[in-house]
Every structure is written in C-alpha cells, then in structure tokens.
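Course assignment 3, question 2. Fill in each field.
Student: A.L.
Task: Predict the tertiary structure for the chain below.
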Amino acid sequence: MSTTALSKLMLACALAAGVCLPSLAALKVGADAPDFTTEAALAGRATPFSLAQTLKNGPVVLYFYPKAFTSGCTIEAHNFAEATERFAALGATVVGVSNDNIDTLKKFSVEACRNKFRVAADEGARILKAYDAGLFIKPDMADRISYVISPQGKILYVYSSLNPDQHVANTLKVVEQWRASHPK
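Answer field:
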C-alpha cells in the first residue's frame, strides 16, 4: 500500500471513529488571529465574509471542520446551530471554515447549519494554513479546531478534537467568561 493510500485510510478511519489525531494547531492563546476575507454561505446564499468587520461586533467563534456533509461535521454544525442564539446573546458570532467549495457550502448552510450561521469557503486552504488548522496526516484538509477570537483580534481559546461533541460547550464557556469580564 502506498503512503498516500495509507494516509487516506488512516484519515478515513479516524474521521469515522471520531478519534483525535494530532493537529498542527500552532496558534496559541494570546496570538494575533490572522485576518482574512472570503466567500461564505448563509441560508443558501453566498456573501462576502471579513473577519476584521465581524470582530467589530464582538468575539468570533471560528471553527474549522474537515468536510461538509460528513457525519462528524454535520453533528458539529447542528450543535453550533442549536447554540447560535446563545452565542449571539453574548455578542459573539459563529463561523465555520472548511476547504469545501461555495456551492457545497450553500447547501450545507441550509441543511446542516439550519440557516443560523455562516460557513466560509477556503478552497485554497490559505485560511486553514494561516491558522495552522490542518490535519497532521493531511495538512491541506482542515482539522476540527475551534478558536475563540477577541474583538481585538487575539486568540482567547483553542480546542482541537476530531470528536465534535465538546466544541460548542467549550467555546460557549469561554465566550460567557469573556462577556462576564466585558459587560455591555
């Protein structure tokens, strides 16, 4: 079996099992969050997305996921959709990022994200590279990593696990702590 075939097999098994593989996540708490603009989908429509513009409204929960319409990514999108109103009440915006194309994300934004938050296209993997969010075994594919970014553009929190279960709870807790220390 070739190295590429073995890597793909290991990735498929890990994704299917929800096993954590080491990520390349190198952005640390306190680091500057790389700014970016890209096309994103919300409620089936493509719109421009700017991190800098969105941070003017409050913190951003930026989560990377491997591939739209896979089981773990759909579960995670549903979880974030269910919590979007709680994030919004705290002044935070949720946005997902994958290297899927915008047409795929238009569908995903309706079916999995339930029209609640944007999912951004990163077809060239430039955003995931800037955030060191590539899978160890396949660096051009996003790992499942969630960042909480302060309105000042600093990384407040990083959570990496291919298991989608704790991303919402962990990031929501950090946003709640941020809001408590930054009352409106």
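Instructor remarks: The chain has one domain: 3-181. The beta strands are 37-42, 45-50, 60-64, 93-98, 118-121, 145-149, 155-160.
Grade: pending
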